[in-house]
Write a structure and sequence with these properties.
Elements: E1 7-8, E2 18-23, E3 39-44, E4 50-53, E5 58-72, E6 75-81, E7 91-94, E8 100-104, E9 110-116, E10 125-127, E11 135-137, E12 148-154, E13 164-171, E14 176-183, E15 188-194, E16 201-205, E17 208-212, E18 217-220, E19 226-230, E20 236-243, E21 254-255
Antiparallel strand pairs: 1-18, 2-3, 3-9, 4-8, 5-6, 5-7, 5-8, 5-9, 7-10, 11-12, 12-13, 13-20, 14-19, 14-21, 15-18, 15-20, 16-17, 16-19
Length: 279
Amino acid sequence: MSPANALLPGPRPGFPVGFTAVTSAAGGMPSAVPDLGIDFGLLRPREGEVISEAHASESVWVLLRGAAELEFAGQRATVRRTSLFEEPPSVLHLGPGTPVTIRTLQPDTEWAVVRTANERAFPPRLFLPADLTPEYRGAGLVQNTALRNVRLIFDRATRPEANLVLGEVVNFPGRWSSYPPHHHDQPEIYHYRFTAPAGYGHAELGDHVLKVRPGDTVVIPPGLDHAQVSAPGYGMYYLWIIRHLPGNPYTGFTFAEEHKWTLDPRQQGWRPTDLPPLL
């Protein structure tokens, strides 16, 4: 897959009511890459709509906004979210064949739905905002120009039965994230939102740069360095999704060698001397 084809534009007015498929694990879509193995889409149910399923795949439901009541494995919970940028998510992670019922309690409720094949059975788990501790990566490095809030939802350490790793990043205006550029063997998806309809940012894939806007998705091919930056004035959010490969699970990433010096707090980079006084 060419990096030039990695950008999957989202609808500028927002996703319509119903389910919008973005990527397909089985291929056959423009987003298909070898071994992607991830079904990803956005669901906007109607207020009062009830969804019941027991999907054959490992499934993850990430609440982007709105409110819903969940029933699964004898449990019942109500989840709400008003801001991607100010609030951690509520996330329901289900093993294959696990029944779930979702009752929509609020108009404009929206879910990101992620699925992948998994032959293992495992109990479901609901991750609530209080379970997800923010991690402010980049603090004190290169003049705080890559400071961001990383919310790891789950990984191999917390859900070893899973074939997925998920998290969110809140990218502060005018700053970088996924920085220094890094790569890994496993395929990844980034899905973007912004604090304003005119918001945008740039996503690097190797030497190729993509302009990303609200609702866009980028498919990151295995082994390709990637980093992000948000335009000044606009907060940028992205949901990131990685799939473990058979015999090669995701356990971390490798930084681009030429930029690893930025991880040393003693090396803050060039500081201009001709800046005007800041008001």
